[in-house]
Design a protein that fits this description.
Number of strands: 7
Number of helices: 15
Strand order of the largest sheet: 1-5-4-3-2
Order of helices and strands: EHEEEEHHHHHEEHHHHHHHHH
CATH superfamily of the domain at 119-237: Hypothetical protein, domain 2
CATH class of the domain at 119-237: Mainly Alpha
Strand content: 5-15%
Distance between the termini: 45 Å
CATH architecture of the domain at 119-237: Orthogonal Bundle
CATH topology of the domain at 119-237: Endonuclease III, domain 1
Largest sheet: 5 strands, antiparallel
Helix content: 25-40%
């Protein structure tokens, strides 16, 4: 039996804290080997920090408290970053939700905007999610992290097949061969974008310390990273409560339907969300939680494209 040293930290917040809702955006689908919400209410997460890999287990201990167990060389660095990760800097004191999201806002009072400060960790899965069905992107993420990531330090969640993995570092992403991108179901365009991001990872990681607009501009300098992708990264890595995923296939129709009962496009969505700046992404999350953001389909579902067959 392997013995792992564990660092245990009790984090107490002055406000209500819902760990599951706050950390949830860091997961990328069922079976994500870097993120696991357990049946007992705890949340497991891995990350690759400057000091090394870390496994974190978040155990809610009350409306304002969470006990966090940390394993690995990155444990102390991750412990110091817990307040930022858990959204203690997320200021929503002036936020008034739209009436359509008021009930969700009351029920999700402990939801914060998560801030990982790990840019490449958020950027690669966002690139994989470009222009494809979510299920396809999640499958590719699982396959690539399982094959090229490293075993997570510490114990594994009970019953989790294969255990947890830590994301590959930038160098490992650049060394994924063409045929393995193909085996993961990633087309050449997205594969090239992911590699370009990894090649300039140190410059991209600097964006975490920049103002939101400047940070997103830095990301969008990489060929293949547009406004949708930079918004997805900003929501997770920068804790940006105002980053709207413009260019999303489903989002404008969903937001339009939730707020007006009619579909809309990107421009219409931005007009509807404009009164809620700088909390537009917060509104989108609440509308999603409310169950209102589901515009009825106008036709059959698109078939899932499997690039492994091309």
């Amino acid at each position: 039996m392997v013995h792992w040293d564990v660092l245990t930290v009790r984090h107490t917040s002055p406000r209500r804290l819902d760990v599951g809702l706050t950390l949830g955006p860091l997961g990328h689908g069922p079976g994500d080997p870097t993120f696991h919400p357990a049946a007992d209410g705890s949340v497991w997460r891995t990350s690759l920090l400057r000091a090394g890999p870390v496994t974190q287990r978040f155990v809610p201990a009350g409306p304002h408290e969470v006990v966090v167990h940390l394993w690995g060389d990155g444990a102390r660095e991750a412990a110091a970053a817990l307040p930022v990760l858990l959204g203690e800097d997320d200021d929503a004191a002036d936020f008034v939700p739209p009436p359509q999201a008021a009930v969700a806002h009351r029920r999700a009072v402990g939801m914060r905007m998560v801030r990982s400060d790990r840019v490449l960790e958020a950027l690669v899965p966002a690139v994989l999610e470009q222009r494809v069905q979510t299920v396809t992107a999640h499958r590719a993420w699982r396959w690539l992290v399982t094959r090229y990531g490293t075993p997570a330090p510490g114990p594994a969640p009970e019953g989790l097949r294969g255990g947890l993995r830590v994301v590959p570092d930038a160098r490992a992403w650049t060394r994924v061969p063409v045929w393995d991108w193909h085996r993961a179901g990633v087309d050449p365009g997205r594969a090239r974008t992911a590699v370009r991001c990894a090649l300039v990872a140190p410059r991209l990681e600097e964006a975490a310390a920049m103002a939101p607009a400047e940070a997103r501009a830095r990301l969008e300098k990489v060929q293949g990273v547009g406004v949708w992708t930079s918004a997805e990264v900003a929501q997770r890595a920068f804790g940006d409560a105002d980053a709207v995923s413009v260019g999303d296939f489903h989002l404008p129709a969903a937001v339009g339907w939730a707020l007006t009962g009619e579909r809309t496009d990107d421009d219409g969505m931005l007009r509807l969300l404009a009164p809620y700046a700088p909390h537009r992404h917060r509104v989108v999350r609440l509308l999603s939680l409310s169950g209102r953001a589901r515009a009825p389909r106008r036709g059959p579902k698109l078939p899932i494209a499997d690039y492994r067959a091309f």
